[in-house]
Amino acid sequence: MQFTVQQIAEALGAECQGDTGLTIIRAAEPGEAGPTDLAMAMAPKYAEALSNGDARAAVLWEGADWQALGLSAAVFVPRPRMAMAGITAMLDRGQGIEPGIHPSAVVDPTAQIAANVSIGPLTVVGARAQIGAGAVIGAHCVIGLDVILGESAVLREMVSIGARARIGDRFIAQPGARIGGDGFSFVTPEVSGVENVRKTMGDQGDAKAQTWLRIHSLGAVEIGDDVEVGANCTIDNGTIRNTCIGNGTKLDNLVHVGHNTRVGQDCLLCGQTGVSGSVEIGNNVVLGGQTGVVDNIFIGNGVISGGGTKILSNVPAGRVIIGYPGIKMESHTDIYKAQRRLPRMARDVEALKKAVFKQPPSD
User: pTM of the prediction?
Assistant: First the structure.
Protein backbone atom coordinates (compact mmCIF):
# COMPACT_ATOMS: atom_id res chain seq x y z
CA MET A 1 0.00 0.00 0.00
CA GLN A 2 1.61 3.24 -1.12
CA PHE A 3 0.62 6.81 -1.96
CA THR A 4 2.28 9.94 -3.24
CA VAL A 5 2.61 13.04 -1.10
CA GLN A 6 0.12 14.70 -3.44
CA GLN A 7 -2.46 11.95 -2.92
CA ILE A 8 -2.12 12.16 0.86
CA ALA A 9 -2.51 15.94 0.83
CA GLU A 10 -5.58 15.75 -1.39
CA ALA A 11 -7.17 13.13 0.87
CA LEU A 12 -6.61 15.42 3.86
CA GLY A 13 -7.72 18.56 2.04
CA ALA A 14 -4.32 20.01 2.97
CA GLU A 15 -1.64 22.08 1.23
CA CYS A 16 1.56 20.40 0.05
CA GLN A 17 4.80 21.73 -1.43
CA GLY A 18 7.98 20.37 -2.98
CA ASP A 19 8.40 17.08 -4.82
CA THR A 20 4.81 15.94 -4.29
CA GLY A 21 5.29 12.85 -6.46
CA LEU A 22 7.42 11.15 -3.79
CA THR A 23 6.15 7.69 -2.87
CA ILE A 24 5.13 7.11 0.75
CA ILE A 25 4.83 3.59 2.18
CA ARG A 26 4.39 4.19 5.90
CA ALA A 27 4.21 6.84 8.62
CA ALA A 28 7.04 7.14 11.14
CA GLU A 29 8.36 9.16 14.05
CA PRO A 30 10.51 12.11 12.89
CA GLY A 31 13.78 10.69 14.20
CA GLU A 32 13.14 7.22 12.77
CA ALA A 33 11.73 8.07 9.32
CA GLY A 34 13.42 6.78 6.20
CA PRO A 35 13.31 7.91 2.55
CA THR A 36 9.90 6.31 1.83
CA ASP A 37 8.36 7.26 5.18
CA LEU A 38 6.14 10.20 6.00
CA ALA A 39 7.60 11.82 9.11
CA MET A 40 4.92 12.92 11.56
CA ALA A 41 6.42 16.24 12.71
CA MET A 42 3.31 18.31 13.23
CA ALA A 43 4.62 20.78 15.82
CA PRO A 44 7.85 22.82 16.11
CA LYS A 45 9.07 20.63 18.99
CA TYR A 46 9.63 17.81 16.47
CA ALA A 47 11.86 19.87 14.13
CA GLU A 48 15.15 18.87 15.76
CA ALA A 49 14.26 15.17 15.63
CA LEU A 50 13.91 15.32 11.84
CA SER A 51 17.68 15.75 11.50
CA ASN A 52 18.19 12.40 13.24
CA GLY A 53 16.31 10.50 10.53
CA ASP A 54 16.42 10.23 6.75
CA ALA A 55 12.94 11.52 5.95
CA ARG A 56 12.40 13.22 2.61
CA ALA A 57 8.77 14.10 3.30
CA ALA A 58 6.94 15.14 6.45
CA VAL A 59 3.64 16.38 7.79
CA LEU A 60 4.36 19.81 9.28
CA TRP A 61 2.64 22.62 11.10
CA GLU A 62 1.36 25.56 9.10
CA GLY A 63 4.08 28.05 8.16
CA ALA A 64 6.99 25.64 8.71
CA ASP A 65 10.12 26.19 6.59
CA TRP A 66 10.29 22.72 5.07
CA GLN A 67 13.36 23.44 2.98
CA ALA A 68 15.36 24.63 5.99
CA LEU A 69 14.45 21.31 7.63
CA GLY A 70 16.17 19.47 4.78
CA LEU A 71 13.00 17.98 3.27
CA SER A 72 12.07 17.39 -0.35
CA ALA A 73 8.32 17.71 0.24
CA ALA A 74 5.90 18.59 2.99
CA VAL A 75 2.19 18.51 3.84
CA PHE A 76 0.89 21.33 6.05
CA VAL A 77 -1.96 20.68 8.49
CA PRO A 78 -3.81 23.11 10.77
CA ARG A 79 -5.17 20.42 13.12
CA PRO A 80 -2.62 17.64 13.69
CA ARG A 81 -4.87 15.14 15.48
CA MET A 82 -7.43 15.40 12.69
CA ALA A 83 -4.70 14.81 10.13
CA MET A 84 -3.60 11.72 12.05
CA ALA A 85 -7.06 10.23 11.58
CA GLY A 86 -6.85 10.56 7.81
CA ILE A 87 -3.21 9.50 7.42
CA THR A 88 -3.50 6.41 9.62
CA ALA A 89 -6.66 5.35 7.80
CA MET A 90 -4.85 5.54 4.45
CA LEU A 91 -1.73 3.70 5.60
CA ASP A 92 -3.37 1.00 7.72
CA ARG A 93 -2.25 -2.35 6.30
CA GLY A 94 -4.96 -4.34 8.09
CA GLN A 95 -4.60 -7.74 9.78
CA GLY A 96 -3.92 -9.87 6.73
CA ILE A 97 -7.23 -11.77 6.67
CA GLU A 98 -7.51 -13.41 3.28
CA PRO A 99 -10.54 -12.71 1.08
CA GLY A 100 -13.31 -15.30 1.06
CA ILE A 101 -14.31 -17.92 3.62
CA HIS A 102 -11.52 -19.97 5.19
CA PRO A 103 -12.00 -23.76 4.76
CA SER A 104 -11.98 -24.29 8.52
CA ALA A 105 -14.78 -21.80 9.17
CA VAL A 106 -18.19 -23.25 10.05
CA VAL A 107 -20.97 -21.30 8.34
CA ASP A 108 -24.55 -22.46 8.80
CA PRO A 109 -26.21 -23.10 5.41
CA THR A 110 -29.06 -20.72 6.32
CA ALA A 111 -26.69 -17.81 7.00
CA GLN A 112 -26.71 -15.00 4.43
CA ILE A 113 -23.23 -13.85 3.47
CA ALA A 114 -23.09 -10.75 1.24
CA ALA A 115 -20.47 -9.93 -1.37
CA ASN A 116 -16.79 -9.42 -0.60
CA VAL A 117 -16.95 -10.85 2.92
CA SER A 118 -13.81 -12.32 4.50
CA ILE A 119 -14.16 -14.95 7.22
CA GLY A 120 -11.05 -16.20 9.01
CA PRO A 121 -10.02 -19.62 10.32
CA LEU A 122 -12.18 -21.50 12.84
CA THR A 123 -14.90 -18.85 12.90
CA VAL A 124 -18.50 -19.99 13.45
CA VAL A 125 -21.50 -18.26 11.87
CA GLY A 126 -24.85 -19.35 13.24
CA ALA A 127 -28.21 -20.08 11.66
CA ARG A 128 -29.95 -17.26 9.79
CA ALA A 129 -27.18 -14.78 10.56
CA GLN A 130 -26.82 -11.95 8.04
CA ILE A 131 -23.34 -10.61 7.26
CA GLY A 132 -23.18 -7.33 5.32
CA ALA A 133 -21.08 -6.63 2.27
CA GLY A 134 -17.38 -6.04 2.78
CA ALA A 135 -17.28 -7.37 6.34
CA VAL A 136 -13.95 -8.73 7.59
CA ILE A 137 -14.23 -11.36 10.33
CA GLY A 138 -11.07 -12.62 12.00
CA ALA A 139 -10.10 -16.01 13.35
CA HIS A 140 -11.97 -17.80 16.15
CA CYS A 141 -14.98 -15.47 16.06
CA VAL A 142 -18.51 -16.62 16.91
CA ILE A 143 -21.58 -14.99 15.39
CA GLY A 144 -24.79 -16.32 16.89
CA LEU A 145 -28.10 -17.21 15.32
CA ASP A 146 -30.22 -14.45 13.80
CA VAL A 147 -27.44 -11.88 14.21
CA ILE A 148 -27.47 -8.98 11.75
CA LEU A 149 -24.01 -7.54 11.12
CA GLY A 150 -23.85 -4.46 8.87
CA GLU A 151 -21.64 -3.60 5.92
CA SER A 152 -17.88 -3.07 6.21
CA ALA A 153 -17.74 -4.44 9.75
CA VAL A 154 -14.33 -5.47 11.10
CA LEU A 155 -14.14 -8.13 13.81
CA ARG A 156 -10.70 -8.87 15.14
CA GLU A 157 -9.82 -12.32 16.47
CA MET A 158 -11.93 -14.04 19.12
CA VAL A 159 -14.88 -11.66 19.03
CA SER A 160 -18.22 -13.21 19.97
CA ILE A 161 -21.65 -11.84 19.16
CA GLY A 162 -24.62 -13.45 20.86
CA ALA A 163 -27.91 -14.47 19.28
CA ARG A 164 -30.25 -11.85 17.84
CA ALA A 165 -27.82 -8.93 18.10
CA ARG A 166 -28.41 -6.20 15.51
CA ILE A 167 -25.31 -4.24 14.55
CA GLY A 168 -25.03 -1.37 12.05
CA ASP A 169 -22.52 -0.53 9.34
CA ARG A 170 -18.78 0.05 9.79
CA PHE A 171 -18.70 -1.64 13.18
CA ILE A 172 -15.25 -2.36 14.64
CA ALA A 173 -14.63 -4.86 17.45
CA GLN A 174 -11.15 -5.31 18.88
CA PRO A 175 -9.82 -8.72 20.05
CA GLY A 176 -11.86 -10.56 22.65
CA ALA A 177 -14.91 -8.28 22.64
CA ARG A 178 -18.02 -10.07 23.94
CA ILE A 179 -21.39 -8.77 22.82
CA GLY A 180 -24.61 -10.32 23.98
CA GLY A 181 -23.75 -12.19 27.16
CA ASP A 182 -26.56 -12.56 29.67
CA GLY A 183 -27.10 -9.72 32.11
CA PHE A 184 -26.00 -9.96 35.74
CA SER A 185 -29.52 -10.19 37.12
CA PHE A 186 -30.50 -12.24 40.17
CA VAL A 187 -33.25 -12.15 42.81
CA THR A 188 -33.96 -13.73 46.20
CA PRO A 189 -37.33 -15.26 47.19
CA GLU A 190 -37.71 -12.69 49.99
CA VAL A 191 -36.37 -9.18 50.47
CA SER A 192 -32.58 -9.39 50.70
CA GLY A 193 -30.06 -7.51 52.82
CA VAL A 194 -28.92 -5.64 49.71
CA GLU A 195 -32.43 -4.35 49.07
CA ASN A 196 -32.72 -3.18 52.68
CA VAL A 197 -29.37 -1.41 52.47
CA ARG A 198 -30.52 0.48 49.38
CA LYS A 199 -33.57 1.69 51.28
CA THR A 200 -31.86 2.53 54.57
CA MET A 201 -28.38 3.45 53.26
CA GLY A 202 -26.73 1.40 55.95
CA ASP A 203 -28.90 -1.18 57.70
CA GLN A 204 -29.52 -4.70 56.41
CA GLY A 205 -32.51 -5.10 58.71
CA ASP A 206 -33.64 -8.60 59.56
CA ALA A 207 -33.07 -10.08 56.08
CA LYS A 208 -31.82 -13.64 56.17
CA ALA A 209 -29.27 -15.37 53.98
CA GLN A 210 -30.89 -16.72 50.80
CA THR A 211 -30.09 -18.36 47.49
CA TRP A 212 -29.87 -16.16 44.42
CA LEU A 213 -32.26 -17.09 41.58
CA ARG A 214 -31.35 -16.29 37.99
CA ILE A 215 -33.33 -13.84 35.84
CA HIS A 216 -32.81 -14.80 32.21
CA SER A 217 -32.02 -12.29 29.49
CA LEU A 218 -34.72 -12.36 26.82
CA GLY A 219 -33.57 -9.15 25.14
CA ALA A 220 -30.56 -8.73 22.87
CA VAL A 221 -28.11 -5.97 21.92
CA GLU A 222 -28.66 -3.22 19.35
CA ILE A 223 -25.66 -1.27 18.07
CA GLY A 224 -25.83 1.62 15.60
CA ASP A 225 -23.54 2.65 12.75
CA ASP A 226 -19.87 3.64 13.15
CA VAL A 227 -19.50 2.14 16.61
CA GLU A 228 -16.18 0.80 17.88
CA VAL A 229 -15.77 -1.61 20.79
CA GLY A 230 -12.37 -2.13 22.41
CA ALA A 231 -10.54 -5.30 23.39
CA ASN A 232 -12.25 -7.44 26.04
CA CYS A 233 -15.30 -5.19 26.27
CA THR A 234 -18.57 -6.77 27.40
CA ILE A 235 -22.06 -5.63 26.46
CA ASP A 236 -24.87 -7.56 28.13
CA ASN A 237 -28.20 -8.53 26.62
CA GLY A 238 -31.26 -6.77 27.95
CA THR A 239 -33.64 -8.56 30.29
CA ILE A 240 -36.78 -7.78 28.28
CA ARG A 241 -35.85 -4.73 26.18
CA ASN A 242 -32.59 -4.58 24.25
CA THR A 243 -29.37 -3.00 25.45
CA CYS A 244 -28.59 -0.18 22.97
CA ILE A 245 -25.45 1.61 21.81
CA GLY A 246 -26.04 4.68 19.62
CA ASN A 247 -24.41 5.72 16.34
CA GLY A 248 -20.79 6.84 16.51
CA THR A 249 -20.16 5.76 20.10
CA LYS A 250 -16.72 4.38 21.00
CA LEU A 251 -15.92 2.01 23.87
CA ASP A 252 -12.33 1.69 25.06
CA ASN A 253 -10.76 -1.59 26.22
CA LEU A 254 -12.29 -3.37 29.22
CA VAL A 255 -15.51 -1.36 29.26
CA HIS A 256 -18.64 -3.05 30.59
CA VAL A 257 -22.20 -2.04 29.66
CA GLY A 258 -24.87 -3.71 31.76
CA HIS A 259 -28.25 -5.11 30.76
CA ASN A 260 -31.00 -2.73 29.57
CA THR A 261 -28.63 0.24 29.45
CA ARG A 262 -29.03 2.69 26.60
CA VAL A 263 -26.01 4.69 25.46
CA GLY A 264 -26.64 7.64 23.13
CA GLN A 265 -24.81 8.83 20.03
CA ASP A 266 -21.16 9.90 19.77
CA CYS A 267 -20.25 8.96 23.34
CA LEU A 268 -16.79 7.98 24.59
CA LEU A 269 -16.55 5.38 27.36
CA CYS A 270 -12.88 5.19 28.37
CA GLY A 271 -10.93 2.20 29.67
CA GLN A 272 -12.29 0.15 32.57
CA THR A 273 -15.51 2.13 32.77
CA GLY A 274 -18.36 0.06 34.20
CA VAL A 275 -21.99 0.96 33.57
CA SER A 276 -24.60 -0.91 35.60
CA GLY A 277 -27.98 -2.05 34.30
CA SER A 278 -30.88 0.13 33.18
CA VAL A 279 -28.86 3.34 32.85
CA GLU A 280 -29.92 6.01 30.34
CA ILE A 281 -26.92 7.84 28.86
CA GLY A 282 -27.49 10.81 26.55
CA ASN A 283 -25.58 11.92 23.46
CA ASN A 284 -21.97 13.16 23.39
CA VAL A 285 -21.22 11.91 26.90
CA VAL A 286 -17.59 11.23 27.89
CA LEU A 287 -16.91 8.91 30.82
CA GLY A 288 -13.24 9.01 31.83
CA GLY A 289 -11.25 5.89 32.64
CA GLN A 290 -12.50 3.77 35.55
CA THR A 291 -15.76 5.67 35.84
CA GLY A 292 -18.38 3.62 37.64
CA VAL A 293 -22.11 4.18 37.13
CA VAL A 294 -24.78 2.87 39.51
CA ASP A 295 -27.92 1.29 38.04
CA ASN A 296 -31.26 2.90 37.20
CA ILE A 297 -30.09 6.50 36.75
CA PHE A 298 -29.79 8.88 33.81
CA ILE A 299 -26.81 10.87 32.55
CA GLY A 300 -27.75 13.86 30.41
CA ASN A 301 -26.39 14.98 27.05
CA GLY A 302 -22.85 16.33 26.99
CA VAL A 303 -21.83 15.18 30.47
CA ILE A 304 -18.09 14.68 31.09
CA SER A 305 -16.78 12.65 34.02
CA GLY A 306 -13.15 12.72 35.10
CA GLY A 307 -11.18 9.50 35.54
CA GLY A 308 -12.16 7.39 38.53
CA THR A 309 -15.50 9.13 39.05
CA LYS A 310 -18.26 7.13 40.74
CA ILE A 311 -21.67 8.30 39.54
CA LEU A 312 -24.28 7.45 42.18
CA SER A 313 -27.17 9.70 41.14
CA ASN A 314 -28.69 11.40 38.10
CA VAL A 315 -26.48 13.89 36.26
CA PRO A 316 -28.04 16.84 34.40
CA ALA A 317 -27.02 17.67 30.85
CA GLY A 318 -23.74 19.46 30.29
CA ARG A 319 -22.28 18.91 33.75
CA VAL A 320 -18.59 18.16 34.35
CA ILE A 321 -18.13 15.89 37.36
CA ILE A 322 -15.38 14.09 39.24
CA GLY A 323 -14.84 12.26 42.53
CA TYR A 324 -16.51 9.65 44.72
CA PRO A 325 -19.36 10.36 44.79
CA GLY A 326 -19.24 12.31 41.55
CA ILE A 327 -19.96 16.01 42.04
CA LYS A 328 -19.36 19.21 40.05
CA MET A 329 -15.69 19.54 39.21
CA GLU A 330 -15.60 23.06 40.70
CA SER A 331 -17.02 21.78 43.99
CA HIS A 332 -14.62 18.85 44.06
CA THR A 333 -11.68 21.21 43.47
CA ASP A 334 -12.80 23.45 46.34
CA ILE A 335 -13.15 20.43 48.64
CA TYR A 336 -9.70 19.17 47.64
CA LYS A 337 -8.15 22.56 48.35
CA ALA A 338 -9.87 22.64 51.74
CA GLN A 339 -8.59 19.13 52.55
CA ARG A 340 -5.03 20.19 51.80
CA ARG A 341 -5.43 23.09 54.23
CA LEU A 342 -6.69 20.87 57.07
CA PRO A 343 -3.26 20.07 58.63
CA ARG A 344 -2.38 23.76 58.75
CA MET A 345 -5.80 24.63 60.18
CA ALA A 346 -5.36 21.94 62.84
CA ARG A 347 -2.00 23.43 63.84
CA ASP A 348 -3.52 26.91 63.99
CA VAL A 349 -6.39 25.68 66.19
CA GLU A 350 -3.93 23.95 68.52
CA ALA A 351 -1.89 27.12 68.81
CA LEU A 352 -5.02 29.15 69.56
CA LYS A 353 -6.08 26.68 72.26
CA LYS A 354 -2.72 26.97 73.95
CA ALA A 355 -2.85 30.76 73.78
CA VAL A 356 -6.35 30.90 75.25
CA PHE A 357 -5.73 28.43 78.08
CA LYS A 358 -2.51 30.21 79.14
CA GLN A 359 -4.27 33.55 79.64
CA PRO A 360 -4.12 34.79 83.27
CA PRO A 361 -7.45 34.83 85.09
CA SER A 362 -9.41 38.07 84.63
CA ASP A 363 -10.34 40.29 87.57
Answer: 0.89
